[in-house]
Structures are given as C-alpha cells and as structure tokens.
Design a protein that fits this description.
This protein is α/β, with parallel strands linked by helices and 375 residues long. It contains twelve helices and ten strands. Strand 1 (76-80), helix 2 (85-97) and strand 2 (104-111) form a beta-alpha-beta unit. Helix 1 packs across helix 2 (85-97).
Length: 375
C-alpha cells in the first residue's frame, strides 16, 4: 500500500526541487542498499555500495522505511521550519527524499521572541526535527525591529537568520514551505497596495538560494500529510490575529471571495501570479537591454530615447537606475516612479526630485541624472 495521496504529492514536489538542486550541485545518485530477504550463502549483495551503511529500525522515517543517510560532505539543503503544518510536511518530505539523491538535509527554526514561551517551542521543534533525521538543526533567536511594520520586520529578521545559517553551514539552498494559499494571499495583498505586475507575480518558486517546492499545492494537503504521518504541528496564533493584514486576508477576505465567486479562487489567483510572472520577467529583460543602450558615457540616461519606450519598460529602466544610485528597493514605490517618469514625458523645467535613500533625480541637457545628494 502506497503513502497517503497528500504525502505522495508533497514528496513528488520536493523530489523535483531536490533533483534540480542535486544536478546544480554536481551531486551523484547513490541508491539505498537493501539486503534481499533470501540470499544464498556467500552470494554477494546486489547493488551494494562501498561505505554505505543502513540505519537500523531504531532510526526510521515516519513512512516506516529504514533511512539511509547521504554520505558526509554531500551538499546540504536547509529547511526553514516554524513548526506549522506547511513547513513540517516539507521537512518530513525532504528528509525522506534528499538522501536518495545524495543530499544532506538540515533545518533552521527561527525564534522571533514575539510570544511567551517562544524559545521553548523553538527548542521543541528543533528536537522533533532531529528525531526525524535532519542534521544539522538549529533554533535561532532573532530580534525583530519595527521598520516597515511588524510583519515586514519579522520577515526581515527571519530571512537574515536563514541567510546567516546557510552561509555558516555552506548550504546550497534553503527550502520554504509556502503553499498555493500563501501565493493567493500575496496576490491579493499586491492588488490592495497597487504595487504593479511584479507584486502581482507573487512569490517565485526559485530566487537565489531560496526554493519553494509547495507553491502548486494547497495548505490542506500539508495538514493531511502531517496527520497521515502522525506528526504534531503548532498553529501560530499570529496567523489568526486580525491585527495582521495577511491574517485578515486569509480568514476574512478569501472566504468571502470563495463564497460569492465560487470555489477555485485560490487556484485562480495562483494561476494569475504565474501569468504575471512570465510577463514581468519578459519586461524586466527588455528593460535591462534598453537601459544598456540608453546609458551615456557619463552614466546618465538619454531622456529622448527613454520617451520612445513603452511606459511599462521605461518605468522599469527608471527603477533600475534609481536602485543603482542607492534607493532602497523596499522604499521605492510606484508613486516615485510616476514622478520620475514626468521628467521624461512631461518635462516643464522641473527641479530635482528627492527619492528614498537620499537619492536625487534631475533632468539635465536632455539626460536623466541619478545621484546621492551631496555627491
């Protein structure tokens, strides 16, 4: 009898991601050694690999199958685990699949320190992950600031901790447990903020060292997988706290949409994100090529040629130039780009524009100049 359908779906998604990682890391497949039930005396083991050791029944995966670890020194993949169903299901699947393709798998659980008893919970999650065979496993405390609001500050602190752990352990990737439901919430938040097509493209499946294997699966599948494997999970009360915007989207906005528009809203929003991502990627590539052609010898941008570009491409060029001059990406919004764009399309002798990060944009002699104030 095979695994529960939810378990099988999650394992397949994780296997695809890990296979890509193994290929990128140059890892080679080492088949687990299985001794046949009946073997003539003196007959050699078929398919045995030198130096491969089976872990006995005392260290089995929740699937019930004995676990064969990857060789020491194999490429390491870390899983970011909160203790919730999404990340626990991801960690269990990674622990099951990674050794089969020559990868080691560890985990990091971040203690944000925002709730009473958070340190104890993080330690419990870490111990549970070790019992599942993940190694190394760390519970990392962080200090959450206030910049950008509580959700953004917690996210920034979490990613900083994950980056530091990945660097320290030399991990080839960090797996995140975001699901299709998370993607739908991200798209709705982007719509509410009017952030443009890149925001509506949602979360990428692959960005830098981060991979999101579960983006095509829904949140219910992760709960079913944990239940089927008798893995306890922790439900973060912040996920139900209406003080947080994402929580309101999850528990108030999406249910209303499902009720009045019919089922399938989450899947439709996730599909919208994929379509917007394809468009945004194409426009970004166009903007990159255009910026190279428009840049003058002094590093400024030719305003006349900029005006000939479609607005979607032109504003991407302007954004790239502003970021290069020192504007923080998180503080550069659509309204800033609209104002800069007027230096190209509505030139009436305006003075310099003051942008986030102390950057100044000016039109001078038919060119746009981006520089830090005081330079």
């Amino acid at each position: 009898m095979g695994p529960h359908p939810a378990v099988a779906a999650i394992r397949l998604a994780v296997r695809r991601t890990l296979t890509d990682l193994a290929a990128e890391a140059g890892s080679t497949f080492t088949a687990p050694v299985r001794e046949p039930r009946e073997r003539p005396a003196g007959a050699p083991l078929v398919g045995a690999a030198v130096g491969t050791t089976l872990i006995g029944n005392a260290a089995r995966h929740p699937s019930g199958l004995p676990r064969t670890p990857a060789a020491p020194g194999s490429p390491l993949v870390l899983v970011a685990v909160s203790g919730g169903a999404d990340s626990m299901a991801l960690a269990i699947a990674a622990a099951f699949e990674a050794p089969k393709i020559g990868l080691r798998v560890g985990a990091v659980t971040v203690d944000h320190g925002l709730q009473a008893g958070s340190a104890e919970r993080a330690a419990q999650v870490a111990e549970r992950l070790r019992s599942l065979g993940l190694d190394p496993v760390e519970a990392v405390p962080v200090r959450v600031g206030r910049a950008g609001g509580p959700e953004a500050a917690a996210r920034d602190a979490r990613y900083a901790a994950l980056d530091e752990a990945a660097d320290r352990h030399g991990a080839v990737a960090v797996l995140l447990g975001h699901t299709r439901d998370d993607q739908a919430e991200t798209v709705l938040l982007g719509l509410a903020r009017g952030s443009g097509s890149r925001s509506l493209a949602g979360m990428p499946a692959h960005k830098g060292r981060y991979r999101r294997p579960l983006l095509e699966l829904d949140r219910a599948a992760t709960r079913q997988a944990c239940s089927a494997q008798s893995i306890p999970v922790w439900d973060d009360p912040h996920n139900c706290d209406p003080a947080y915007t994402r929580s309101r989207v999850r528990h108030e906005v999406l249910p209303v949409l499902e009720k009045h528009l019919g089922g399938g809203v989450v899947e439709a929003l996730a599909r919208t994100a994929r379509l917007f991502r394809d468009d945004a990627d194409a426009l970004d590539q166009w903007a990159s090529l255009a910026e190279r052609d428009l840049r003058t010898g002094e590093g400024t941008l030719d305003a006349v040629k900029l005006a000939e570009l479609p607005s979607a491409v032109r504003r991407r060029v302007l954004r790239r130039a502003a970021l290069r001059a020192g504007c923080p990406a998180g503080d550069l919004f659509a309204r800033h780009l609209e104002t800069i764009d007027l230096l190209v399309t509505g030139w009436r002798g305006q003075g310099p524009l003051h942008l986030p990060g102390g950057v100044e944009a000016t039109r001078r002699c038919g060119t746009l100049v981006f520089r830090r104030q005081g330079d």
